[in-house]
Design a protein that fits this description.
The protein is α+β, with helices and mostly antiparallel strands. Helix content is 23%, strand content 20%. The strands form two sheets. A four-stranded mixed sheet has the order 1-8-4-5. Strands 2-3-6-7 form a four-stranded antiparallel sheet. It starts with 12 loop residues before the first helix and ends in a 19-residue tail after the last strand.
Length: 246
């Protein structure tokens, strides 16, 4: 039997570039991690996929370990707000969902004590705060916006969420879904935003986490659930880095 052919890193540059885009590992793959590929015996793209996917999940664990739940993202003034604020989604602006605020009810489920639905007036009755922070998109652009709403930690406490659970997940009216780790959910700057620039940016409710990339800020939220089972996400299930701190 012939010994397996050793494949150099240079042979896989096109695949690596493709997978970096898909997994958002351009900044996450270290030189040492890439050097692992140069000594691997790989027969097809699937093997590269599996290796880089494993690296992405390892990167998730490293980011989670380094996350400081008390470190604040930079804040800005009203004069710094980006106008117009860019619209971004996996669909065109004309396809945004139209939601009647009077009929809207936020559903809660999973590891929570109180599962009653929340109307917009219920949410607005809770203490509100605002922030002007930068949203960073993985596509390479960023914009400063102003959001106002309730501290997500306060909301989780009000519904009796298990704050030792691993994940908080979101289901949205635009068929988007995502999830975050509990420490990020409890970060003091994480908001359930009720007021922002325009309805197309998530009316009537969106999540705002200045500590994470833009695609971790789901819009048009219809349900929040708390769980210990990995929930994944729309882009995450396609291979994007799950933790995605900014």
């Amino acid at each position: 039997m012939k010994p397996p052919r050793r494949i150099s890193l240079r042979e896989f540059q096109p695949q690596i570039a493709r997978l970096e885009r898909r997994l958002f590992l351009k900044q996450g793959l270290s030189l040492g991690a890439l050097s692992l590929l140069s000594g691997c015996t790989l027969k097809d793209d699937d093997a590269v996929d599996r290796l880089l996917f494993a690296m992405s999940r390892f990167n998730d664990r490293v980011q989670a370990a380094l996350f400081d739940p008390l470190r604040l993202a930079p804040t800005y003034s009203d004069a710094d707000v980006t106008t117009p604020f860019p619209f971004n989604a996996y669909y065109e602006e004309k396809d945004i969902p139209r939601i009647d605020g009077e009929d809207y009810r936020l559903q809660v489920s999973g590891l929570v004590a109180d599962r009653r639905p929340w109307s917009l007036s219920d949410l607005r009755a809770l203490p509100q705060s605002s922030q002007i922070t930068r949203l960073v998109c993985v596509e390479g652009w960023s914009a400063i916006g102003k959001w106002r709403g309730l501290a997500f930690r306060h909301f989780l406490e009000r519904i009796g969420a298990d704050l030792t659970a691993r994940y908080v997940g979101f289901k949205c009216a635009d068929k988007y879904y995502s999830s975050i780790d509990m420490p990020s959910a409890l970060h003091p700057q994480t908001l359930l935003a009720l007021d922002f620039t325009d309805a197309k940016y998530g009316y009537p409710l969106r999540l705002r986490l200045p500590t994470k990339l833009g695609f971790k800020n789901p819009k048009f939220i219809g349900e929040i659930f708390v769980t210990n089972d990995y929930p994944g996400g729309y882009w995450e299930d396609k291979g994007y880095n799950w933790f995605s701190g900014s």
